[in-house]
Amino acid sequence: MIDIKDLTMHYGSFVALDRISFQVQEGEILGLLGPNGAGKTTVMRILTTYLYPTSGTAKIQNLDIIQDATEVRKRIGYLPETAPLYSEMQVEEYLKFVASARGLNGKTLEQRLGWVKNACGLRPVWKHSISEISKGYRQRAGLAQALIHNPKVFILDEPTSGLDPLQIIGIRQLIKSLSREKTIIFSTHILQEAEALADRIVIINEGTIVAQGTQKELADQVRKMGETKSELSLEDIFIGLLKAKSKKAKDLGQR
Predict the structure, then answer these.
(1) Superfamily (CATH H level) for 2-213
(2) Spatial contact of 135 and 162, defined as CB atoms under 8 Å apart
(3) Torsions phi, psi of 148, nearest 5?
(4) Counting beta carbons within 10 angstroms of the beta carbon of residue 255, is it exposed (0 to 12), middle (13 to 18) or buried (19 or more)?
(5) Are 146 and 78 in contact (CB under 8 A)?
(6) Which DSSP category does 179 fall into?
(7) pTM of the entire predicted model
(8) Mean of pLDDT over the chain
(9) Closest of 205, 231, 202 to residue 219, by C-alpha
């Protein structure tokens, strides 16, 4: 469904991504995990065709993100970290505007509006101005705009950032329910998010992939490095893998 090979991004002399490669299978939730500034958002902006990579390739449903950019955009829904909302519009008005920009009309438009209203839990604020609703509902409105055209691939950048615990639970439940029909990539620096949602995890730091796999596979990697704990949380795994990478880089630098 998504195939990324040797993706590289330079901003002048700064290397934001350095030859990263991974795949996401159909119906899978993949968590892109790493500290702030690791390169997660750059990956997502390239996949959504907002940025062109310096080198490397990425395909979504066998469509190249550079050669077939317009077709790729039709097949993805994207929620950036700051949801693209117009505060003066009502929720319904805003989603009709987005749907119109996506080419929806007639019965299809009404069906999709009804679906996102229910799926994203927007019924209580449907006629409210976006400026009046809570951050949790704004995030839901952002999810709705990404889903209005029924994309097969859903890309979420820090989807629960800044939300309170109850709002986070609601967004997690929504993402889980969507995974029955969508292929989902989400980025986060919050370990609990990846632990709660991801089928597989790609850990990225300083523009390179540290490790990738299921949580069990990542835990096995850490145990092979000498960890003796019987139960490893994702925090234990994350810290262990980053320490191992740092040590390897230091050893190479001393040669």
Answers:
(1) P-loop containing nucleotide triphosphate hydrolases (3.40.50.300)
(2) yes
(3) -60, -30
(4) exposed
(5) yes
(6) T
(7) 0.88
(8) 90
(9) 231
